[in-house]
Amino acid sequence: MGIQRNTCRNGGRIEIGRRCVLLGLAGTGIAAGCQRVRVTEHVPNGHWREGVALPQAVQEIYPALFEGRIHVAGGFVAENGAISGPTDAHFAFDRERGDWSEFPPLPNPRHHPHLVSFQGRLVAFGGFESPSADAVWQMQSSGWALPPAEERFVYYPPLQAVDEYWAAFPSLPRPVGEAVTAIIGDHLHLAGGRRPAGEANASWSDHTDTPGHFVLTSLGGQWETAAPMPTARNSAASAMIGEDWHVVGGRTVAGGNTGAHEVYDAREDRWRTAAPMPQGQGGLAAANVGSRLYAFGGEFFQPQPGGVYAEAWCYIPALDTWQPIPDMPSPRHGLGAVAMDDEIYVIGGALGVGGRDTSALVEIFKPI
Known about the structure:
This protein is an all-beta fold.
């Protein structure tokens, strides 16, 4: 089934938007004053298949593609389904071999660390450490960088070695967690998330939402500020589509889940608003294949006892519209999503709200 876009005229201006998008066959009616324009987009679809499970159940992760492998490091691990604390474990999936293998562990256990491939390094930064039972959510500004395999043990400049594997990474201007990251050009961007609201920095309630946006141009450089995200929120997801950085969903400390969708143009250092998600989903994951963004999962706390979302969505930039895709076989939150070739690996997370039912599942979505 094709999608038809209507071009509406209003006072001599041409407006193309969601109100003028018709989903249907050629016989669908047209609003007065609108001219039907045929476009080549089609209603998105796809199918799910089971992937190779992680070596351990883990949630609150931000996996990344590095040196042709999918890397997962840190996060919350569980005992008997309930989270027991952060981990330093680091695994990578080799698609050709079809298995996960151990890689150098993080220097410290950390949950919610942001993993990114940046200028030839695998970087893990931000997130939270848990030095004691009374300080499970100690937010961090520091991070580490792992050199490529052929340079390991012998090459660290311009960074200083932390241990035999990892080197120190430039610290953020302030502690940040549950943010979104992107590589735009050869620069690393981080936006949104949560930060300490005051001096306290030990529990979840010590933190507040931030619209802050920081940019790192080189491994040996310092973070700079960029245009703040219009909606301060945490636990959102993001993906690059062409040169545009799309940030979708998430939640706010005071207001709960949001469907906000904002797009950053680094060329102008400017954000714009795009079509919101059909429903607000916080703690979700996203990735892009081709010219579309795909969003998966998340959790809600109200009405109690809360739950996780099965719904998954596709955003079509050419039409500024969202369409449903097949529900997740195993609804989860605190999961990660990584695109490899023309498939999206949806990794880990929790099958229940909060820390319940942490999972080692990997499910793979193939758009068609």
